[in-house]
């Protein structure tokens, strides 16, 4: 049953009866609320108000902004259960496991870290010749364009550092998951000054205008590579600075001699976190001949035992695909693998008894590296496990696509693992784990997975503009 406080929070942000766009429950497909349908004119007004509010917000100084962000984190905590229920229904992820409640916890952890991380001026020269410092100032108005898979957490990744550095922010959530984001922004705006943080729920036309608007100084985007390319094109006119976290098709390599039992559960969650709907999830697993069968068997056993179903059921840890297009992609890729002669070890089919968009957790073995399920990002609960005998070949396959968000190497030999990690072409490489992140450790992609860093001090720098202040040096 939905938390009654969630219903009250929805009433604060949804469109009036008879208007707006109906948003379905990902598991049941019942309408859970009506998202406002904002227009380009609404966006223009929001940006104008954000621009007017920005100087005073920056003028508060770091200490006062930090206090307000900590208060916003407290407000999220106070409403965390209601927000988790809205998120679970709208996105589909279960309340428990590394899912909805976990996501709300990550939101406040990142927001508090953004609030308390210090970015000092950098002294470049300090001698008799001159004194020069590099200082970081607010960019202006930031446009934050978020995805549907981790809609709250990733929105915080965008707005937390932006607000911390004195920018104002206009947020455009995904059309699939606007309610949870608007609800979180409403809670934060209970403590933030007016017009510092605004949510606009609109269509692609609104998103295109946000990217190209002359008063937008910075765009932060998480989503597909195709959309990211359009944002790059749209921002050419306003020369907005960009941080782009785009598609990933993360590879993992299990090296010879690795103990399958020791890594199986971490491998599973690296791939199936959020039912596989995670940008930096493990999406291609290369396993050496010597341990291939044992790894496949262990993964299949875990996959078959994981409870899947409606996210509001406290027992479930896997949910549905969030939307029909993504469900169709996963189905197509698994069917293509089956047609090519790959072995479906477990899963490989929809679970209609659970709901319209449920797909059983799937392990696909004996699949060739050129199969679509390997070469394309599936973004769902289906993991291809590719056999290799030559380690150099495994690295060639892993690095052979135009994506480089994350990667992992797995080994019982720490020295071999660290040497192997340096051979992976990705923004992050994990050893004997996959997908773990920390608010102080920079994160970003290479190749077609995007550019720019988020998190920690580097994340604060990314939403700033630099200024060099120089003057006379020390007198002898």
UniProtKB/TrEMBL annotation:
All residue ranges annotated as the Aldehyde dehydrogenase domain in the record: 24-468
One Pfam family this sequence matches: Aldedh
Active site: residue positions: 245
Keywords recorded for this protein, A-Z: Oxidoreductase
Family that this chain belongs to: Belongs to the aldehyde dehydrogenase family.
PANTHER family in the record: ALDEHYDE DEHYDROGENASE-RELATED (PTHR11699)
Protein's name according to its UniProt entry: Aldehyde dehydrogenase family protein
Taxonomic lineage from the root: Bacteria, Bacillati, Actinomycetota, Actinomycetes, Micrococcales
């Amino acid at each position: 049953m939905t938390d009654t406080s969630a219903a009250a929070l929805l009433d604060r942000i949804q469109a009036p009866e008879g208007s707006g766009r109906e948003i379905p429950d990902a598991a049941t497909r019942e309408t859970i609320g009506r998202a406002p349908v904002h227009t380009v004119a609404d966006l223009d007004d929001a940006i104008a108000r954000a621009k007017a509010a920005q100087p005073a917000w920056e003028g508060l100084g770091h200490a006062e902004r930090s206090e307000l962000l900590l208060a916003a984190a407290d407000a999220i905590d106070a409403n965390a259960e209601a927000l988790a229920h809205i998120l679970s229904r709208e996105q589909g992820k279960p309340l428990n496991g590394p899912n909805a409640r976990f996501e709300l916890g990550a939101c406040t952890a990142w927001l508090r870290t953004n609030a308390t991380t210090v970015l000092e001026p950098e002294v470049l020269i300090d001698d008799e010749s001159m004194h020069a410092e590099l200082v970081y100032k607010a960019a202006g108005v930031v446009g934050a364009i978020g995805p549907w898979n981790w809609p709250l957490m990733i929105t915080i990744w965008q707005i937390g550092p932006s607000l911390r550095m004195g920018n104002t922010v206009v947020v455009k959530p995904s059309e699939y998951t606007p309610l949870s984001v608007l609800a979180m922004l409403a809670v934060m705006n209970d403590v933030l000054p007016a017009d510092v943080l605004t949510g606009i729920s609109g269509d692609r036309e609104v998103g295109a205008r946000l990217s190209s608007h002359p008063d937008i100084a910075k765009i932060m985007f998480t989503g597909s590579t195709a959309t990211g390319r359009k944002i790059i094109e749209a921002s050419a006119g306003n020369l907005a600075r960009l941080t782009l976290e785009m598609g990933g098709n993360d590879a993992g390599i299990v090296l010879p001699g690795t103990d399958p039992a020791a890594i199986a559960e971490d491998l599973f969650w690296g791939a199936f976190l959020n039912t596989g709907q995670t940008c930096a999830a493990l999406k291609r697993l290369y396993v050496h001949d010597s341990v291939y069968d044992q790894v496949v068997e262990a993964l299949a056993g875990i996959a078959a035992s994981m409870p899947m179903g409606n996210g509001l059921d406290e027992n479930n840890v896997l949910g549905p695909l969030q939307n029909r297009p993504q469900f169709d992609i996963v189905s197509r890729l698994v069917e293509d693998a089956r047609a090519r002669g790959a072995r479906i070890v477990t899963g490989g089919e929809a679970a209609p008894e659970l709901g319209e968009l449920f797909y059983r957790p799937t392990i696909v073995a004996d699949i060739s590296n050129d199969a679509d399920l390997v070469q394309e990002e599936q973004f769902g609960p289906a993991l291809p496990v590719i056999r290799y005998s030559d380690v150099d070949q495994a690295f060639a396959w892993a690095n052979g696509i135009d994506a480089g968000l994350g990667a992992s190497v797995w080994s019982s030999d720490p020295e071999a693992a660290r040497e192997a990690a340096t051979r992976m072409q990705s923004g992050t490489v994990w050893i004997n784990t996959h997908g773990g992140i920390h608010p102080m450790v920079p994160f970003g992609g290479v190749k077609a997975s995007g550019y720019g860093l988020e998190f920690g001090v580097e994340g604060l720098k990314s939403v700033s503009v630099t200024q060099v202040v120089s003057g006379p040096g020390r007198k002898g």
